[in-house]
Design a protein that fits this description.
The structure holds 2 protein chains of 2 kinds. In chain A, 51% of the residues lie in helices and 16% in strands. By secondary structure, chain A is of the alpha+beta class. In chain A, the strands form 2 sheets. In chain A, strands 4-3-2-1-7-6-5 form a 7-stranded antiparallel β-sheet. A 4-stranded mixed β-sheet of chain A has the order 8-9-11-10, sandwiched between helices. In chain A, a hairpin with an 8-residue loop joins strand 5 and strand 6. In chain A, helix 5 packs across helix 7 and helix 7 packs across helix 10. Chain A is rod-shaped. About 5% of the residues of chain A have low confidence. By secondary structure, chain B is α+β, with helices and mostly antiparallel strands. In chain B, a hairpin with a 2-residue loop joins strand 9 and strand 10. Chain B is globular, with a radius of gyration of 24 Å. Classes of the chains: A alpha+beta, B alpha+beta. At the A-B interface, helix 2, helix 3, helix 4, helix 8 and helix 9 of A face helix 2, helix 3, strand 4, helix 4 and helix 9 of B.
Chain lengths: 354, 354
């Protein structure tokens, strides 16, 4: 059958017909008539196929790649004339959104703006999104998990870094009593299920330092206590550590680090080479950034405790300065250090003298 | 004409070409990322299909393009399942750390299943001239080649690894069909030994560097307390040996990619279709390094450019040759699609094959 004259057709597109049964490519023309039928004719004007337009599916346009229109029995008509196909689709209500995304991709201004929007979203997510997720999830972590992780950490620390404390029982009791005072005064903000415990250790490798584990176990080294000229200085540090526990910094830290590492690995998984280096460095910097925030929060916690209990805040500044003096030889740029620079930290502690 | 002359004159060469461009792809790539972010990741399944389609449809041979027809809905389901499993893993492992081993063992036991599903998925949704590919391998074979054979390689301390890899590629390629026609891989184990043997020799100095660097890097923390010139030069030495290790590692990857690509295509035939591949190690290395540096410097914005470069390079060095017609291939019976299989296959999309 020879088809009607092409003049009665609304649109025609040239391309190829592939029947899906063999790999044979047949040059053909696609015609749309005014009754809503798509007709495919070969180069001899012979009818190959005639189907209702609404029963076909046109693949979405991607750039200027060849377009395929699929027919009910698996046949396809393919063409490079994308613009013609776009015109054709205007006659098929079902294909309304076909070139929507393509239009967005054609908009180069939008593409450039996307860079800004994406960079901004990433920044937002990093600064607020991840900490927010951590804040929401942290209270949901079961106490058993927190306690287990903390206990395991103490065992590891004892194995590799700590030795038995050389403080006498009297000193330990005295300091433990003062520690309990801090805890009791914080009843409202006490982390439920946590068991606060003060552990005394000596550490030749770590030196003067104090640690807070998520379960409420706080460790203070003899070396740090030896720096103190006054019990109040030790109290200010213990309050800082309690701040870490109350604000769930340990748990949040673990959650945030995991999210950051997973995200960066997933995103940069796209890069063809040298990806391991480019993952490790940003991850490290980002995680250090979070730690600085936590230290600031703990400092504030200590500050508020001291003020509330009418203890002069300069005690914190004093002991910090004393320790800083011995370690000022290592000038690490503040991006890399986990503690904000001592001078910045103690500024507000020095102001208040009761 | 003698038969020989007849044959020679009838060998047709069809070079592969890649018609995509970095400009066009950049816009597609970034808009799709933007949409994925705005939809909190849900659109990412569609983005993945679009990105893949861009590369498939722009890969042209004998004036026809490839097509990728996966359903984004299945991909979305697969991703949701993957996230849930990941969540389950993290939860279980934080309460019972011992379970990590259990998960690892389960993963290795299921690995051959994942590979099989991935191979089936990739084949089923890839087509050329409207004839789909198909993967015929059985689950038992998959376990045989991807579990048993790996154990064999381990037992022989890696000496049998090239042999194992040759068997695996044979399994993958021979079980791939274009329509009803089988691919055939004619390489032998010795061809793989020729590729991997030089690596074995050169790995020894590399390992030496790595061990040297690790020993330095694993110095006791006690040393860090009093930083001196000594420590700084030790860290420098560690840094240098790490960089050397990294560069050698990248070179080896480029080498393997180039040699394997050539071997696979030069020794694979589909009925009377053969391939000629002339990819060079140094070219791959150059592209990898420049891609990595540029991508890192532009915070990833040049990733689309990097991908296009690779696509262009590989296709420009690949030629299809045949003495026969490209129109003689027939489609296989339509398989019943197993949607769970699709989802598993997508998640572990290992991009095997072309």
């Amino acid at each position: 059958m020879i088809s009607d004259s092409k003049n009665s057709h609304l649109l025609s597109v040239t391309g190829n017909f592939l029947d899906g049964k063999t790999s044979k490519k047949i040059p053909a023309t696609l015609l749309l008539d005014n009754k809503g039928y798509l007709q495919i004719v070969d180069s001899d004007d012979q009818d190959i196929l005639s189907v209702k337009f609404s029963e076909t599916r046109t693949y979405n346009r991607i750039g200027n790649t060849r377009r395929q229109i699929t027919f009910p029995n698996g046949e396809i008509f393919e063409t490079s004339d994308n613009d013609r196909v776009d015109d054709l689709l205007k006659f098929n209500k079902k294909e309304k959104g076909n070139i929507f995304i393509h239009r967005l991709e054609q908009n180069f201004k939008l593409a450039l703006m996307s860079i800004v929007i994406i960079a901004f979203s990433i920044l937002l997510f990093w600064k607020f999104g991840i900490p927010l997720i951590a804040s929401i999830v942290a209270p949901m972590v079961p106490d058993t998990v927190i306690n287990k992780i903390s206990d395991e950490t103490v065992i590891t620390l004892d194995k590799y870094y700590f030795q038995k404390t050389s403080l006498n029982k009297k000193t330990q009791q005295r300091l433990t009593k003062k520690f309990s005072t801090i805890i009791k005064s914080q009843k409202k903000e006490l982390v439920a299920g946590s068991r606060y415990k003060l552990l005394f250790r000596s550490s030749k490798t770590i030196g003067a330092n104090a640690f807070a584990l998520p379960s409420g176990t706080i460790i203070i080294t003899d070396q740090l206590i030896n720096y103190a000229k006054n019990d109040k200085e030790i109290i200010s540090i213990l309050a800082h550590e309690v701040g870490h526990v109350v604000k769930r910094h340990g748990t949040k830290s673990i959650l945030q680090n995991s999210v950051v590492t997973i995200l960066i690995s997933y995103i940069t998984g796209d890069v063809s080479a040298l990806s391991s280096m480019s993952v490790a460095i940003p991850t490290f910097l980002i995680n250090t950034g979070y730690t600085k925030n936590f230290e600031e929060e703990a400092d504030n916690f200590s500050y508020n405790y001291l003020v509330k209990n009418k203890i002069s805040t300069h005690y914190f500044a004093d002991i910090m300065k004393r320790i800083e003096k011995d370690f000022s030889k290592t000038e690490i740029p503040s991006i890399f250090s986990t503690h904000p620079s001592t001078n910045e930290r103690i500024k507000k502690f020095e102001k208040k003298r009761i | 004409m003698t038969t020989e002359n007849l044959e020679k004159s009838q060998v047709k060469q069809y070079p592969f070409t890649f018609t995509g461009s970095a400009n066009e792809y950049f816009a597609i790539w970034i808009i799709n990322i933007l949409l994925s972010i705005i939809t909190l990741g849900i659109y990412s399944a569609w983005a993945k299909v679009r990105n893949k389609q861009y590369f498939y449809r722009n890969t042209i041979v004998a004036d026809s393009s490839f097509e990728y027809s996966a359903n984004p809905i299945n991909i979305l389901k697969g991703r949701i399942i993957a996230v849930l499993i990941l969540g389950l893993y993290i939860l279980t492992v934080s309460v019972f750390p011992a379970f990590t081993i259990v998960f690892i063992i389960i993963f290795y036991l299921l690995f051959p299943l994942f590979i099989l599903k991935s191979l089936q998925f990739n084949a089923r949704y890839s087509s050329y001239r409207n004839i789909n590919f198909k993967f015929n391998g059985t689950l038992i074979d998959s376990y045989y080649y991807f579990l048993l054979y790996y154990l064999f390689a381990v037992v022989t301390l890696g000496l049998a690894l090239p042999y194992v890899i040759s068997k695996q590629y044979k399994f993958i390629i021979n079980n791939n069909n274009y329509g009803e026609t089988n691919f055939n891989f004619s390489a032998k184990a010795i061809d793989f030994y020729k590729i991997y043997f030089p690596i074995l020799i050169s790995t020894l100095p590399m390992i030496g560097f790595f061990i040297y660097g690790s020993i330095i890097g694993a110095f006791e923390p006690g040393v860090a307390q009093s930083p001196t010139q000594e420590i700084q030069s030790l860290y420098l030495a560690f840094g240098v040996s790490y960089i050397v290790f990294l560069l050698s590692y990248v070179f080896i990857i480029a080498y393997i990619r180039a040699k394997l690509f050539n071997l696979i295509f030069n020794k694979t035939n589909l009925s009377n279709i053969q391939f000629k591949s002339s990819v060079k190690t140094l070219s791959i290395l150059g592209i990898m390094i420049s891609n990595g540096i540029v991508s890192a410097l532009t915070m990833g914005l040049m990733i689309p450019w990097a991908k296009i470069r690779f696509a262009k390079y590989y296709t420009s060095n690949l030629i299809l040759t045949t003495q026969n017609d490209l129109e003689v291939f027939t489609a296989a019976e339509k398989e019943k699609s197993n949607s769970l299989g699709d989802e598993i296959g997508e998640v572990f999309d290992l991009d095997i094959g072309f």
